[in-house]
Amino acid sequence: MTNWLRCATPRSEAAYRLVCFPHAGGSAPFFHSWAEGLPEYEVHAVCYPGRASRLDEPLPTSLLPLAADIAEAVRPLLDRPVAFLGHSMGAVVAFETARLLQAEGHPVAHLFASGARAPHLAHPEGPEAAGMDDDAIADALVSLGGTDAELLADPDFRELVLPYVCGDFRMFDAYVHRLGALTCDVTAIAGDADPQVGTQHAAAWAEVTEGRFTHHTMPGDHFYLTSNPPFRLIEAAFSAGVPQSVR
Questions:
Q1: Residues 6 or more apart from 178 whose CB is under 8 A from it?
Q2: How far apart are CA 43 and CA 7, in angstroms?
Q3: Burial of 176 per CB tally in 10 Å (0-12, 13-18, 19+)
Q4: What is the pLDDT of residues 160-216, one digit of tens each?
Protein backbone atom coordinates (compact mmCIF):
# COMPACT_ATOMS: atom_id res chain seq x y z
CA MET A 1 0.00 0.00 0.00
CA THR A 2 1.27 3.48 -0.84
CA ASN A 3 2.51 5.63 2.02
CA TRP A 4 0.43 8.50 0.63
CA LEU A 5 -2.91 7.02 1.68
CA ARG A 6 -4.27 5.40 4.80
CA CYS A 7 -7.43 3.31 4.85
CA ALA A 8 -8.38 2.41 8.42
CA THR A 9 -11.28 0.18 7.32
CA PRO A 10 -10.80 -1.47 3.90
CA ARG A 11 -14.09 -2.33 2.18
CA SER A 12 -13.55 -4.16 -1.08
CA GLU A 13 -17.33 -4.40 -1.55
CA ALA A 14 -17.97 -0.65 -1.14
CA ALA A 15 -19.68 1.04 -4.07
CA TYR A 16 -17.89 4.35 -3.49
CA ARG A 17 -14.60 5.68 -2.25
CA LEU A 18 -13.95 8.94 -0.40
CA VAL A 19 -10.44 10.40 -0.24
CA CYS A 20 -9.96 12.95 2.55
CA PHE A 21 -7.31 15.70 2.48
CA PRO A 22 -6.31 17.14 5.89
CA HIS A 23 -5.96 20.81 6.76
CA ALA A 24 -2.66 22.69 7.21
CA GLY A 25 -0.76 21.00 10.02
CA GLY A 26 -3.20 18.09 9.88
CA SER A 27 -2.62 14.40 9.31
CA ALA A 28 -4.50 11.29 8.22
CA PRO A 29 -5.68 10.23 11.72
CA PHE A 30 -7.99 13.28 11.73
CA PHE A 31 -10.32 11.17 9.54
CA HIS A 32 -9.72 7.83 11.27
CA SER A 33 -13.31 7.47 12.54
CA TRP A 34 -15.05 8.49 9.33
CA ALA A 35 -15.46 4.93 8.03
CA GLU A 36 -17.87 4.26 10.89
CA GLY A 37 -20.04 7.20 9.86
CA LEU A 38 -19.96 6.26 6.16
CA PRO A 39 -20.61 2.50 6.11
CA GLU A 40 -21.18 2.33 2.33
CA TYR A 41 -17.87 4.02 1.54
CA GLU A 42 -14.24 2.99 1.60
CA VAL A 43 -12.61 6.00 3.25
CA HIS A 44 -8.98 6.89 2.54
CA ALA A 45 -7.04 9.74 4.13
CA VAL A 46 -4.06 11.45 2.55
CA CYS A 47 -0.78 11.21 4.48
CA TYR A 48 1.27 14.35 3.91
CA PRO A 49 5.05 13.97 4.33
CA GLY A 50 6.85 15.30 7.38
CA ARG A 51 4.41 14.22 10.10
CA ALA A 52 2.93 11.20 11.85
CA SER A 53 4.22 8.00 10.20
CA ARG A 54 6.16 10.12 7.66
CA LEU A 55 7.84 12.37 10.20
CA ASP A 56 11.35 11.63 8.91
CA GLU A 57 10.53 12.66 5.33
CA PRO A 58 11.07 16.18 3.95
CA LEU A 59 8.16 18.56 4.27
CA PRO A 60 6.32 19.52 1.07
CA THR A 61 7.29 23.00 -0.07
CA SER A 62 5.11 23.47 -3.16
CA LEU A 63 1.42 22.62 -3.43
CA LEU A 64 1.32 21.59 -7.09
CA PRO A 65 4.05 18.90 -6.86
CA LEU A 66 2.32 17.67 -3.69
CA ALA A 67 -0.93 17.33 -5.66
CA ALA A 68 0.90 15.46 -8.43
CA ASP A 69 2.26 12.90 -5.96
CA ILE A 70 -1.18 12.41 -4.46
CA ALA A 71 -2.75 12.02 -7.91
CA GLU A 72 -0.34 9.20 -8.68
CA ALA A 73 -1.29 7.44 -5.44
CA VAL A 74 -5.02 7.87 -6.09
CA ARG A 75 -5.06 6.49 -9.64
CA PRO A 76 -5.43 2.83 -8.57
CA LEU A 77 -8.59 3.77 -6.64
CA LEU A 78 -10.41 5.04 -9.71
CA ASP A 79 -11.93 1.70 -10.63
CA ARG A 80 -15.10 2.88 -8.88
CA PRO A 81 -16.65 6.32 -8.23
CA VAL A 82 -14.34 8.44 -6.07
CA ALA A 83 -15.07 11.69 -4.29
CA PHE A 84 -12.53 14.03 -2.72
CA LEU A 85 -13.10 15.92 0.52
CA GLY A 86 -10.57 18.49 1.60
CA HIS A 87 -10.69 20.64 4.71
CA SER A 88 -9.20 24.16 4.74
CA MET A 89 -5.84 23.96 2.91
CA GLY A 90 -6.75 20.37 2.07
CA ALA A 91 -9.63 21.58 -0.10
CA VAL A 92 -7.23 23.39 -2.42
CA VAL A 93 -4.86 20.39 -2.48
CA ALA A 94 -7.86 18.22 -3.38
CA PHE A 95 -8.90 20.70 -6.08
CA GLU A 96 -5.48 20.65 -7.71
CA THR A 97 -5.25 16.85 -7.45
CA ALA A 98 -8.66 16.56 -9.11
CA ARG A 99 -7.57 18.90 -11.90
CA LEU A 100 -4.52 16.76 -12.64
CA LEU A 101 -6.59 13.58 -12.80
CA GLN A 102 -9.19 15.31 -14.97
CA ALA A 103 -6.48 16.41 -17.42
CA GLU A 104 -5.50 12.74 -17.77
CA GLY A 105 -9.08 11.78 -18.58
CA HIS A 106 -9.92 10.45 -15.11
CA PRO A 107 -12.17 13.01 -13.41
CA VAL A 108 -13.32 12.36 -9.87
CA ALA A 109 -17.05 12.16 -9.27
CA HIS A 110 -17.37 14.92 -6.68
CA LEU A 111 -15.33 17.47 -4.73
CA PHE A 112 -16.33 18.52 -1.21
CA ALA A 113 -14.58 21.76 -0.22
CA SER A 114 -14.85 22.10 3.54
CA GLY A 115 -13.93 25.17 5.57
CA ALA A 116 -12.11 26.76 2.64
CA ARG A 117 -12.16 29.87 0.54
CA ALA A 118 -12.32 29.18 -3.19
CA PRO A 119 -8.80 28.72 -4.60
CA HIS A 120 -8.78 31.96 -6.58
CA LEU A 121 -9.56 34.14 -3.55
CA ALA A 122 -6.99 35.83 -1.34
CA HIS A 123 -5.91 33.93 1.76
CA PRO A 124 -7.35 35.11 5.08
CA GLU A 125 -4.06 36.54 6.38
CA GLY A 126 -3.57 38.65 3.25
CA PRO A 127 -0.18 40.01 2.18
CA GLU A 128 1.13 39.96 5.75
CA ALA A 129 1.28 36.16 5.78
CA ALA A 130 4.65 35.99 4.04
CA GLY A 131 6.31 37.90 6.87
CA MET A 132 4.83 35.95 9.79
CA ASP A 133 7.30 34.14 12.04
CA ASP A 134 6.72 30.65 13.46
CA ASP A 135 5.11 31.87 16.68
CA ALA A 136 2.72 34.16 14.81
CA ILE A 137 1.71 31.32 12.49
CA ALA A 138 1.19 28.99 15.44
CA ASP A 139 -0.93 31.57 17.27
CA ALA A 140 -3.06 32.16 14.17
CA LEU A 141 -3.76 28.44 13.80
CA VAL A 142 -4.36 27.90 17.51
CA SER A 143 -7.06 30.56 17.35
CA LEU A 144 -8.95 28.43 14.80
CA GLY A 145 -9.08 25.39 17.09
CA GLY A 146 -8.78 21.71 16.22
CA THR A 147 -6.75 18.88 17.73
CA ASP A 148 -3.51 20.08 16.18
CA ALA A 149 -4.00 23.46 17.82
CA GLU A 150 -4.11 21.71 21.18
CA LEU A 151 -0.72 20.17 20.43
CA LEU A 152 0.69 23.55 19.44
CA ALA A 153 -0.45 25.01 22.75
CA ASP A 154 1.39 22.26 24.67
CA PRO A 155 5.09 23.14 25.16
CA ASP A 156 6.03 19.45 25.18
CA PHE A 157 4.63 18.94 21.68
CA ARG A 158 5.19 22.37 20.17
CA GLU A 159 8.77 21.69 19.05
CA LEU A 160 7.66 18.51 17.28
CA VAL A 161 4.54 19.93 15.65
CA LEU A 162 5.65 23.45 14.77
CA PRO A 163 7.86 22.59 11.75
CA TYR A 164 5.16 20.88 9.72
CA VAL A 165 2.43 23.28 10.78
CA CYS A 166 4.49 26.26 9.66
CA GLY A 167 5.69 24.40 6.57
CA ASP A 168 2.11 23.81 5.44
CA PHE A 169 1.16 27.40 6.17
CA ARG A 170 4.03 28.79 4.08
CA MET A 171 3.43 26.29 1.26
CA PHE A 172 -0.21 27.31 1.09
CA ASP A 173 0.65 31.00 1.22
CA ALA A 174 2.93 30.55 -1.82
CA TYR A 175 0.20 28.84 -3.85
CA VAL A 176 -0.89 30.70 -6.97
CA HIS A 177 -4.20 29.75 -8.58
CA ARG A 178 -4.17 28.98 -12.31
CA LEU A 179 -7.17 29.28 -14.60
CA GLY A 180 -9.05 26.09 -15.39
CA ALA A 181 -12.26 24.62 -14.03
CA LEU A 182 -13.32 21.19 -12.85
CA THR A 183 -16.07 19.31 -14.64
CA CYS A 184 -17.28 17.37 -11.58
CA ASP A 185 -19.92 18.49 -9.11
CA VAL A 186 -18.64 20.59 -6.21
CA THR A 187 -20.12 21.05 -2.75
CA ALA A 188 -18.80 23.78 -0.46
CA ILE A 189 -19.35 23.41 3.29
CA ALA A 190 -18.49 25.91 6.00
CA GLY A 191 -19.29 26.54 9.64
CA ASP A 192 -21.65 29.42 10.36
CA ALA A 193 -19.15 30.83 12.90
CA ASP A 194 -15.99 30.29 10.84
CA PRO A 195 -13.89 33.46 11.27
CA GLN A 196 -12.00 32.89 8.01
CA VAL A 197 -14.58 31.51 5.58
CA GLY A 198 -17.72 33.54 5.10
CA THR A 199 -20.68 32.71 2.91
CA GLN A 200 -19.26 34.62 -0.05
CA HIS A 201 -15.89 32.85 0.24
CA ALA A 202 -17.46 29.40 0.17
CA ALA A 203 -19.98 30.30 -2.54
CA ALA A 204 -17.12 31.35 -4.83
CA TRP A 205 -16.28 27.66 -5.39
CA ALA A 206 -19.09 27.79 -7.97
CA GLU A 207 -16.68 29.74 -10.20
CA VAL A 208 -14.18 26.87 -10.49
CA THR A 209 -16.46 24.11 -11.72
CA GLU A 210 -18.55 23.47 -14.81
CA GLY A 211 -20.51 20.84 -12.88
CA ARG A 212 -23.34 21.33 -10.44
CA PHE A 213 -22.57 23.43 -7.36
CA THR A 214 -24.16 23.43 -3.95
CA HIS A 215 -23.30 25.35 -0.79
CA HIS A 216 -24.10 24.28 2.77
CA THR A 217 -23.62 25.99 6.11
CA MET A 218 -23.13 23.87 9.21
CA PRO A 219 -23.35 24.88 12.88
CA GLY A 220 -19.86 25.54 14.24
CA ASP A 221 -16.55 27.28 13.65
CA HIS A 222 -13.64 26.50 11.33
CA PHE A 223 -13.48 22.95 12.69
CA TYR A 224 -17.22 22.30 12.68
CA LEU A 225 -16.58 18.79 11.29
CA THR A 226 -14.82 17.65 14.46
CA SER A 227 -18.09 17.47 16.38
CA ASN A 228 -20.49 17.48 13.45
CA PRO A 229 -19.07 15.51 10.48
CA PRO A 230 -21.17 16.05 7.33
CA PHE A 231 -21.79 12.36 6.69
CA ARG A 232 -25.41 12.57 5.55
CA LEU A 233 -24.63 15.53 3.32
CA ILE A 234 -21.79 13.58 1.67
CA GLU A 235 -24.00 10.55 1.09
CA ALA A 236 -26.81 12.57 -0.44
CA ALA A 237 -24.68 14.82 -2.65
CA PHE A 238 -22.18 12.24 -3.89
CA SER A 239 -24.54 9.39 -4.70
CA ALA A 240 -26.98 11.78 -6.41
CA GLY A 241 -24.29 12.76 -8.89
CA VAL A 242 -23.15 9.23 -9.77
CA PRO A 243 -24.84 7.83 -12.90
CA GLN A 244 -27.05 4.81 -12.29
CA SER A 245 -24.94 2.78 -14.74
CA VAL A 246 -21.88 2.89 -12.46
CA ARG A 247 -23.58 2.42 -9.13
A1: none
A2: 6
A3: exposed
A4: 888 888 889 889 989 999 999 999 999 999 999 999 899 999 999 999 999 999 999
Model pTM above 0.85: yes
Among candidate residues 88, 110, 114, 201, the one labeled active-site is 88
> Do 19 and 85 meet the contact criterion of CB atoms below 8 Å apart?
yes
Does the active-site annotation cover 222? yes
239/12 Cα distance (integer angstroms): 18
Q: Are 151 and 52 in contact (CB under 8 A)?
A: no
Catalytic residue among 23, 44, 87, 222: 222
Strand order in the sheet with 82-87: 5-6, 41-46, 16-21, 82-87, 110-114, 185-191, 213-218
The pairing of strands 41-46 and 110-114 is unpaired
Active-site residue flag, 88: yes
Report which of 238, 145, 134 is spatially closest to residue 186, judged by C-alpha positions: 238
